Amino acid sequence: MTSPSALSKGMTQIDDEMTAAIEYSATTPVREAQRMRGEFLTRWRKRSSQLSPRGAGPCHVDLLDEMLRDLGIRGADALLHHLRTGCPMSGVVGYEEIYSPGPPGEPEITEEELLRRQPDVLARSTQAIRAESPANKEAIWSSVRKELEAGFVVELRNPPANAVYLRRFMVRQVKSDEPVPRVKERACDDGRMALINKAVRMATPVKLDTADVYAEVARRVAHRATTRDPGAAFKSMGLDHKEAYRQLRARNDRCVVAEDPSTGRVRFFRMERLSFGEAAAVVHYNAFAKVLARVVRRGLKLPLCQYYDDFASPCPANDDTALTDVLELLQGILHTSFNEDKTSEGHSFRHLGLVFTIASEGVGVAISAPRREGLVHMLKGVLARDSLSPGEAASLAGKLGFATSALFGRVGRVPLQPVFRRSNASTTFAGFKLGGDLEEALGWWVRTLAEDEQCFRRTVPLNPIQPGEGTRYVLLTDACLFGLGAMMATITDGDVVAIEYFSHPVPQEGAGLQIHHLEFVAVTVAFALWFRDKDDFTVSVWVDNDVVLGSLVQGRTRARELRAAVHLFWERLARSRGDAWFERVPGADNIADLPSRLLHAWAGIPIRGVLPKWREVDQRVVDAAIAEVL
Question: Given this model, what pLDDT does residue 611 score?
Fold first, then answer.
C-alpha cells in the first residue's frame, strides 16, 4: 500500500521563511515581540537619517539594499537595479532569484518588429479613441491630467521615433462588497493593441499569497498559539499599497494616446511608470511587493502575506502596535506609500473579497453578504437581457473566480468555463446572446449564491488531521471496461487499522463508456459508499488515470462529457465540508486493480496486518453515477 506519509502532498505549501515568522508570532509573548520590533525600527530609522535622501525610486532603494543584506535576503540585485534605473517592458523579463523559473522561450515578436509596426498601432489607437463616447473621453482625459499633475506622465509635443503607443481606456468595477455598492473607474493602457505584450516573455511566473495561503497561515498561527495557551485570541490586519504600479519607473519610451475633449486634438504623454495593461508590469511590481513582505517577515517577524498591492497578516488580538509597526517600517523608514485610510484590523477581516475570522474552532472563510447580493443582482441582470459581451464576461469571470476562493477555488469551476469561453471569444455572436451552456451556468450561480449560503462558507479547523496524528482516510480507486473497484483504509497514528473494498460489475448502461468515464464513476461510487453520511472528513484519493486525476485536481476538464459530473462531485464535497487531496498511483501499485476486475481472492491476504472487508454497493448508486457521465 502507498505510504501514508505521502498524504501531506498537495496541501498548501508554506516556505521556511514564512514558517519561522509564524512560529515567532505564535509563541513569543506580545510585549517581547513589541520590544524586538521597536529596537529594529529604531536602528533602521537612525540608519535612514545617515544616508542620502530617497532619490527617484519607489522607496529608499539604498536603504532597502542594505536592509536586505543585513536580513540575509539574497538575490534581489536585478530588482534593485530596476528600481534605480527603470523596469524594462519588453524582451525577456523575470526574477529567478525571487520566483521559480518558468519554461524557456522568447517573445512572440522582436523589439525591432514592435517598433516597425507602431505606425499602424497609432492609426488604430487614434481610430478607437475617436470612437469613444463623450463621457469616456472626459474620464480618460481626466485620468491623464491627474497623472500629469502627479508626475507619472510627461506631455510631449512630438513623440520620439522609438515610441510605443498605448491607447487608454476606462475599466469600471462594481464594488459590491461595500455597505453602499459603488462603481470604481480605473484607467488602463492597451498593451495588446500596442503589441508590447507580444514583445515580452515572462521568464518567472508570479506566485502570490492567495486566499488559501492566508487561511493556512492564520490557521498555523492560531493552532500553534492555542496549543500553548488555549485562551489565545487573534485578529487580522491589512494594508493597501498606494498607486501600486505607479510606484515603479519604466524604461521604454511608451506614449499614452488620449484626446483632449475641449479641442478634439489627439495628444501624447510619455508614461514614466508601470502601466495597468502591460504584461511586464505584473512581474516587476509583484517582485517589489514580495520583497517588501519578506522584509516584514524577517525584520518584524510577522507572517505578512502579499497579493498584488494587498498585504495581510494574522497576529495576537492584544498586539496593539503590529499594524503601526509595519506601516512605520514600510512607509516611515523605507518611504514607500500606503493608503492609510484603507489599513484595517479586526477579528472579522475583509481580504481578497472574502471575510476571514480566526476563532477557537478554526479559520472561517466566507463571501460577505453584500458581495453575494451584488453578484446575484449582476447575474440576474445578465440573464434578463440575455446578453454578455466578452469584456463583461472577463469581469464577471474574475468576480466569480474570487467567490470560489471561499472553497479554495475547487467548487464552481465547471460553471465558470462557459463564462471564460465567452470572455475569450474572437467571433461576434448575434447580440452576444447567452446560449445554452452559458445560460445554464449563470443560472446555477444565481441559485447557489442566493439559496445556499453554506456552499460558499468554510471553516478550516485549527488542528486538521495530519499523517501520524488522529484518523485519516485513504482511498484507491480503479476501473476496467467490465468492472469497478475501490479500497478504503482508515489510518490512525500512522497505522492502517481498517480496510474495506467494493467490487462491482459495470451494468449494461455503462457498456459503451470509455475507460476515463468508468474511472470517474469508480471515484463517485466510492465517495457515495464511504462518505455520504460523513461531515468534515479528510481523505487522500489515489487514482491511476491521468484524465480523471487532472479533472479532480483542477475542478475542470476538457472532456466535455465529464464537466457536469466533475462539478457535481465538488459541489457535494463542499456541502459536506470535506477535504480531498488527489494523487497519482502507478497502475502496478494500485491495489484497487483486482477488485475492479471482480477478483476477490486477494482479500484473504493481510495488508499491513489487516484483512480487507468486502462492502456491498447499492445498484442504484452505480446507476446514478453512470447517468452523470452519459
Answer: 76
CA dist., res. 206 & res. 99, Å (int): 7
Residue from 460, 495, 454 nearest 606 by CA: 495
Sequence-distant (≥ 6) Cβ neighbours of residue 395 within 8 angstroms: 171, 173
- H-only helix segments in 452-559: 515-531, 546-554
Nearest alpha-carbon partner for 8 in 410, 468, 364: 468
Q: What pLDDT score was predicted for residue 144?
A: 95
Residues in the chain: 630
**CB count, 10 Å around CB of 361?**
10
Fill in the DSSP letter of residue 429.
P
| Grid cell for residue 1 | 500500500
> Half-sphere exposure of 1 toward its Cβ, with a 13 Å CA cutoff?
29
What are the backbone dihedrals phi and psi of residue 466, each rounded to the nearest 5 degrees, phi first?
A: -110, 160
Assign residue 219 a region: left if phi > 0, alpha if psi is -120 to 50, beta otherwise?
Answer: alpha
d(CA 95, CA 101): 8
Task: Identify the pLDDT of residue 129.
Answer: 93
Write the DSSP symbol of residue 592: T
**Mean pLDDT per 10-residue segment, the chain (630 residues):** 28 81 96 98 95 80 96 93 94 92 92 96 94 93 95 92 93 61 80 95 91 89 91 94 92 91 94 94 96 98 97 96 97 94 91 88 83 85 88 81 63 71 66 80 82 69 57 84 88 71 89 89 91 77 87 73 79 73 79 82 65 86 88
β partners of residue 201? 92
By DSSP bridging, strand 495-505 and strand 613-614 are: parallel
Count of other CB atoms within 10 angstroms of residue 49: 8
- Tell me what pLDDT residue 192 has: 93
CA–CA dist 120, 167 (Å, integer)? 13
> For 279, what's the count of Cα atoms within 13 Å in the CB-facing half-sphere?
22
Q: Do residues 200 and 192 touch, judged by C-beta distance below 8 A?
A: no
Neighbour count for residue 259 (Cβ, 10 Å): 21
Query: For residues 375-387, b (16+ Cβ closer than 10 Å) or e, as one string?
Result: bbebbeebbeeee
CB atoms within 10 A of CB 589: 12
Query: Residue 305 forms beta bridges with which residues?
Result: 312
CB 510 within 8 A of CB 40: no
Distance CA 421, CA 438 (A): 9
Phi, psi angles (nearest 5°) of residue 410: -100, 0
What does the alpha-carbon distance between residue 615 and residue 599 come to, in Å, rounded to a whole number?
14
**Euclidean distance between CA atoms 552 and 537, whole angstroms:** 17
Task: Kindly state the cell numbers that stand for 260.
Answer: 483632449
pLDDT of residue 214: 92
Integer Cα distance of 441 and 455 in angstroms: 16
